[in-house]
Design a protein that fits this description.
The structure holds two protein chains of two kinds. Chain A is α+β, with helices and mostly antiparallel strands. Helices cover 32% and strands 34% of the residues of chain A. Chain A has a single domain, classed as Alpha-Beta Complex (Aldehyde Oxidoreductase, domain 3). In chain A, a hairpin with a 4-residue loop joins strand 7 and strand 8. The longest helix of chain A has 18 residues. By secondary structure, chain B is an alpha+beta fold. Classes of the chains: A alpha+beta, B alpha+beta. Chains A and B meet through strand 3, helix 2, helix 3 and strand 7 of A and helix 1 of B.
């Protein structure tokens, strides 16, 4: 089944409102399930002051849109929103949002998880730690577990 | 063409972007990295472990074997850590 809408993709420094983004996909006649995922900045037991998120303007939007288009090909979705922030993000603040709307929950859960797994490994964002003691915590290293999480979608 | 550097690669190279004029025989991403590495200490450090560096040609992920013949923009960066 082909989805006939354009997903909403945003790369921004401003915060986003989860309730607003979910509400935007509610009330469509065919929507029976909405799954939302929010990724937040941890404080690493008080050691982290903030994350600095660097991104590749233009490519970040293109990559997210490309992965979103793949999700639309794989699952019959009724709505899809992806927002990824950049800039300085403090503990407790939201970093990334995926909202997937479908007729039934299975597609919505799967699409949201697929989006997040692929975003982690293919969207051009990099996190640097700013420690609470004022020091530079360095760039966060990529995790093998994230590559494995993305790879399992192609093994099926 | 324009070269862009991000995250740790940007810090080592010392600039975020620049215009580069590689010689004609530099035709792939991998060859371009080798050429860039020869440009100075920061570049050498940035591309010392070239296998771990990812590249994008005109804002799309590209393998190290990819051609840069018609590229307007080539970007280099470490593995991504968004999400």
């Amino acid at each position: 089944m082909i989805s006939i809408f354009a997903p909403k993709v945003r790369v921004q420094s401003d915060p986003f409102d989860l309730g607003e983004e979910v509400a935007r996909l509610e009330g469509r006649g065919e929507v029976g399930a909405i799954v939302s995922f929010v990724g937040l900045c941890r404080d690493e037991d008080g050691a982290l002051a903030a994350l600095e998120l660097e991104h590749y303007p233009g490519m970040a939007e293109d990559e997210i849109a490309r992965v979103a288009a793949q999700a639309l090909e794989r699952w019959p979705l009724q709505g899809l929103t992806v927002i990824h922030r950049h800039g300085v993000i403090r503990p407790g603040e939201k970093i990334v949002l995926v909202v997937a709307a479908a007729r039934h929950r299975a597609e919505a859960f799967a699409a949201a998880e697929f989006l997040m797994d692929y975003l982690k490994t293919s969207a051009p964002f990099w996190k640097k730690e700013r420690r609470a003691d004022g020091s530079d915590g360095g760039w966060i290293g990529a995790k093998a577990a994230d590559d494995e999480a993305a790879a399992r979608w192609t093994k099926r | 063409m324009k070269a862009l550097y991000f995250a740790s690669v940007r810090e080592r190279v010392g600039v975020a972007e620049e215009d580069i004029f590689p010689p004609r025989e530099v035709s792939t991403v991998s060859e371009l990295m080798r050429w860039l590495a020869s440009r100075g200490e920061g570049y050498a450090e940035a591309f010392a472990n070239a296998r771990t560096i990812r590249a994008a040609v005109d804002k799309a992920h590209a393998s190290h074997e990819a051609s840069i013949a018609s590229a307007k923009e080539v970007a280099f960066f470490p593995p991504m850590t968004g999400g």
